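Researcher: Predict the fold of XdhC/CoxF family protein.
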Amino acid sequence: MDLGSLKALNAARHARRAVMLLTDLGEGRERVIAPGDAVEGGLDSAVGDAFRSGKSRVVETGGRKFFLNVHLPPPRLVVIGAVHVSQALAPMAEIAGYDMEIIDPRTAFATQERFPDVRFHAEWPEDVLKARPLDAFTAVAALTHDPKIDDYPLREAILADCFYVGALGSRKTHAARVSRLKATGLSDAQIGRIHAPIGLDIGAASPAEIAVAVLGEVISALRKHGPEQGKTGKA
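Model: Structure tokens for XdhC/CoxF family protein follow.
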């Protein structure tokens, strides 16, 4: 790998952007590409599939072989609310390979004692997300039931094309949420991306069961659909 490619890969990793090192195995030429970049004839489909799956592979087209080396950011799970469900979700998310963090301005809940092994921010989401913006490789789960805390990150998650957006609450609660989000300029299609009530429909009752349902839905969203790379959801 040449120095230019290495620098490009490191920059993409730092910015949490998906890239691929495309190498012509016959000639040894290589270049770093991003989703949507123009590629040589016959490679478009294979490159798109590789970005969606995250799996590197060798592809042959036109009598030439290419190595598609995919570099995707690790999936991130941002949970809004340092609640009992979050406590149960934290160890599950770690086992599943998610970089989880919790945001909750209520300092009585967001404490080191309750979340000893999790990155947490006892601050308002507006402040945290300015420094740690959401992206297509992030899932957001809003669990506080408090619109003053949940609504802003839900809107930001939609605009950032997060691969999963979910919110805890009854259908009545969500109907009120929809009205508030519409008032901010989001469309019905954009708001329709929110999974509410949150989690797979497994009849979950306890915080631990709800955490299982939430993580299952997050994994399903990532593996079945993947990040919507290159798309913009700006209102």
